[in-house]
């Protein structure tokens, strides 16, 4: 395992890093005029990286290790990376048009996204607490900037500051937990942590475990560590929000799964109750919070909290099937949320300014029938109503929970998804049964329509054609994790 | 034959689907053509089958369609059984249905919903055919429910009319009571015989006679129990005393429906069922006695009520009820062939009477009250003659020694003779009640004829007529738009002439169109000749019936050997009834009023249909509504809604309010919540560690 083979393993990350720096150079010398060019380069680079990752995945499920086991490009990492890259590409495709309208498009935005993806990529393939943390912070730092990207907009700035302060707090908690783990296990690799936990683990070890979980729970905005989410989602520019709700979520959920299984696999009894509690609280609180909202982005923020709850149900099972189900849910979730945010970005008033007020979509079916149709499908899918694809995600997760004898958890989850259905269907009701509010009159770009159409197609009943390949990939990815436990 | 029976049964279904789904897209003409054409094809294919059995060339067979249920020891298929009994029903159903389809072209001409009407008619026909071709009890039940559904839909066809809706619901609910009996009978039969196949049951039935079974703690005769349960089903469908209340109200439906469903076919399903299962009933003497008793009681009950009604369709409806009584007591005394014979002839003359009445109503611009008729003989002569043949048939005009008579003469005489010839006390009672009912039948039938076609016009007083005269349209009932009414073609009814006949109000009744008169003509032929032609095979020919029913040879001999006074009783009572009707409604028209004054209580009792509706309302309907309201207000709204959906919803709304308030935007609070969460998790870990 020499340096050369290690470099081969981290080829995607190297490409991302080099490309990021190169894009930065272009931006520095050409200025904001180059933002479209930089975006195009970014999309190309991400696409290339996705393809390379896909090739890496097709080989050995367990992949290969690099740098003495610090990084491993296995099927699990590949799954998460590709998903995150797809979400990032969607953001890159739709963001120029958004920022150009408010005359704030800058070349930095695509660069930040590329660096964020680099961070995520390291995060999900790391098998060592230190490299994981480096990836996490790279991702987070990019994210803080993206949140406050509209510098002269109060809400955007506020979002960035809040995210940064609370993110710092979370990082502190996470680091403290890591140091405890290092202290009680004598190593920073997941393997070392796992071996130290084999004998049951001392109380200090379990403290460390809890702190790390809390730090990660912040990243995935699980209740009660979700407080930043509604404010940041509402304040940040919509492309950023869409990005936050998809790519970093994918990475954080993947890391959480990787750490809980690979590092804390022997401590199921310790972390399972925490995950279950967070799952239930997220489902309930996300649903309750969403009901009273008048801002679409805020509503989607609560919706993402709610969805994290369902994802955590898959993880809470602590089984191969559960993790696989979670990954399936994650993939469908990305399609649904990306589609929803693109649809929201298509809502513009006569001046072309974005509209975020829920009342504005009244009667959308009459004024903009295609957007209304896509949004209706997305909402029904998010609510988990068959025959839309969102139902399948919920179904596999609940199936895994039932198989793992977590029947009460599944039952409460199903019952609470009824509450969620209320606000999703309320949007449909506003669009289809109310008199048009005649607010949304602005035109939107073709690129949005294309992305929205693709998302709608994926979550439409046609998506069920994907169930078998998606299930296979998810199974392989989950197998990569559990092979080490 | 196997392919023709498939066409007979499924072509009406196909037509119903085409017309029903095509609806307005196809338009009136196409849907009428499709359904009517289908029925005429079915009719044309049915007669050869029937005549084959009459000629003795056909044999019974079973045509499998597909496997239906296979569950444990229970297994049955969709299969179409064709034997003599089925063949009789086939010609009755397809003939009357085809003629009614044709008749409806004219009768429903102005209705905006014709495709729906014809689709229902064809759907009904399919269900009825399914019922009579059933090879097992479940398939029979399928048809049984299918005709119930079609009946419901057609009674309530004019759904904007509240009275029609009420009648439809009443028919459905009352039938459900009977259906419960039928279902229990089917369940019990399966328990006892272990099969649902009708031939297998009938084969095993004689062996089961005398066996007993525990039922609600009591030990009862198995076959009696099963047959009584099945008979309750028959009572519901055939409107026998106790479960008859829906039939008169069902006259709210369009008149062709009354003719097809509530006279000729569906209401006879009970009789058909008893005959189909006759070997079972033969093993159940108590059940047979009950059938005889209920039949005779219905026969006399309905006839008494019929004498006092003013609505022309209601008179005929009670007459139907009464005639069904004849069929049942014929079956009850064991003369199943005779019962089927009366069913057969009755189908023709009763359909004729109904369609004739429809033609009268059509001519009189929706007026159904006979008090506003009179003198119509000259105005609508063709309808008059058709009704005349129908009346001659139903009153049983014929002379035994001349061997001539109308259809009703042959069958009704046979019914009465069979009851007398049976020799049992109950048979005697049935005979005398039947003879009395025949007298009353003659009275109310001639009363109908005299009030409608003789005397002087009394049209002027009718609201419908005066509306017709003044506007040419009837829109007196605003809840019942004129287009949804029985409506005739748009002609001017008012003749601007000073030479108004007294009492006509200037109204000029018009004879119906050809599409309505042709069915009347064909059915008249049936009413005249059906008895003459088919009395032989139906009554005397054991080979004709084959295995399809229980054929009692001895009873047939006894039937022919009854004294002459028995054979002439029907003719005599018919003449007596005719005389009284003539006396009261032509000779001295003050007699009815005098009679009513003299026997106020008796008249009120009869006029109000023995107060059945009122009593049922008090005993069943009101308490059911009361109970329903309690369940609704206290059980559903008070408990389930309050603690269920509404409670959950308000809890969610409260929770949502809390969630919104907690999300204050304050960074300090956010950090605090995070740390609180962390502390909670740690505390939990410590508490676990301590254990």
Name its key features:
heterodimer; A: 485 residues; mainly alpha; two-stranded antiparallel sheet; 2 strands; 76% helix; 1% strand; B: 691 residues; 27 helices; 6 strands; globular; NADH-ubiquinone oxidoreductase chain 5 (chain B); NADH_DH_su5_C (chain B)
Q: What does this protein structure show overall?
A:
- The complex is a heterodimer of chains A (485) and B (691).
- Chain A is mainly α.
- Helices cover 76% and strands 1% of the residues of chain A.
- Chain A has helices at 3-9, 11-30, 35-58, 75-101, 108-125, 129-147, 154-185, 190-197, 203-219, 228-235, 238-263, 268-291, 296-316, 320-345, 364-367, 369-382, 389-403, 407-433, 446-459, 467-482, and strands at residues 64-66, 71-73.
- Chain A has a two-stranded antiparallel ribbon with strand order 1-2.
- In chain A, helix 10 crosses helix 13 (296-316) and helix 14 (320-345) runs antiparallel to helix 16 (369-382).
- The longest helix of chain A is centred in the middle third of the chain and has 32 residues, at 154-185.
- Chain A starts with a helix and ends with a helix.
- Chain B has 691 residues and is mainly α.
- Chain B is built from 27 helices and 6 strands.
- Chain B has a two-stranded antiparallel ribbon. A two-stranded antiparallel sheet of chain B has the order 3-4.
- Chain A binds chain B through residues 161-162, 165-166, 169-170, 173, 203, 206-207, 210-211, 213-214, 217-218, 224-225, 227-228, 230-231, 270, 273-274, 284-285, 287-289, 291-292, 419, 422, and chain B through 652-653, 655-660, 663, 665, 667, 669-671, 673-674, 676-678, 680-682, 684-686, 688-689.
